[in-house]
Amino acid sequence: DTETIIKTVDSIPDNAKEVVMTTAEKLRKQGWEEGREEGREEAKLEDALKMVLKGYSVDDICEITGLSREEVRKLQNSIR
What we know:
By secondary structure, the protein is mostly helical. The protein is built from 4 helices and no strands. It has helices spanning 2-10, 14-53, 58-65, 69-78.
């Protein structure tokens, strides 16, 4: 919980707090960036699935989404 985190940070010597806080900020940003990347991949897969359902060719889907032929084929097989 937040109170425990605050107490823990307060117990860290002043000369180490900056390092701890900088590291925590980097980890938070990394998690956020990873989440954004996962969201992009999900969006690509959703778009590709719509294209599969509309009958687009594998080559067109790969070109438009940047997915591999194997990924598109998996999508095709998942709806059969």
